[in-house]
Amino acid sequence: MEIKFQTKKESKQEQQEAFLKLEPIERFNSFLDLCENVLKFPSKTTVKTSQENFVIEPSTHGKNLETKHR
Predict the structure, then answer these.
(1) Residue 60 pLDDT > 60, yes or no?
(2) What pTM does this model have?
(3) Which of 40, 4, 34 has its CA nearest to residue 19?
């Protein structure tokens, strides 16, 4: 494990450069992995949705988000 001491700006720049070095399909898969990880965070739903709204939930789109996208 490597520990780096850098500013937030330097860290963001490094992350962006690493992301842009990926192939387009790898970027997309990275995005899907990020979406999957965000779903694991606990959250409270405080916004009430209207029955007139069309809502897509991760469990209803037919994809298995529990597997790696590679």
Answers:
(1) no
(2) 0.47
(3) 34
